[in-house]
Amino acid sequence: MNAIFEKVANEQIHNAESQKYKYNYTYTVSAVIPPATTKPSILSIEQDADFLFEKMTGSVLGPCDSNGVPTVSATDFPKPGIAAGAGHAGRGVTVEITDTGSSRNLTSGAVPVETILTPGYGDTLHLPYPIKYFANRNSKIKFNFTNRDTKANANHLVDIAINGYKFMMPETSSSLHPANQIRQNAQTAG
Predict the structure, then answer these.
(1) pTM strictly above 0.85
(2) Which residues lie below 8 Å from residue 48, measured CB to CB, with a gap of 6+?
């Protein structure tokens, strides 16, 4: 057998074996936030696998109606050069991200979404925001969105895509025994 062909064949076998346990996956979070309101949105990591966050992108539109359809109406945050009430917002929503199971804050308080999402309020996609976080299966990641826009009908729509890898490894024996979890101060089902 040709040595190069054998290396390529072995690499493909390795890829197929690895993909049984690790593969690329994307979770989404979407919310319409009414004016002057804080609205939580929960991302539930599925039971089948742990998830490693790698990068995040997202877009924000405002003002929009309650279904997320963009409208031309007044906003406290008009894009530069646009008359009041005649255009779209250039900012206005903040987000605080928390892993509720471990009570771990993934942001230092509320941060403006346009600083971590691309294109954010813009129209041009830039490099995705690099985010490294390993979430265990069944984790709940809370996105606490606050719309600082106070104008009537100034809802803002946020759509986020979080890309990374699912790891379908068997659960460890310690995670299957509640007594071990209690000893390790882990959160248990209740």
Answers:
(1) no
(2) 137, 166, 168
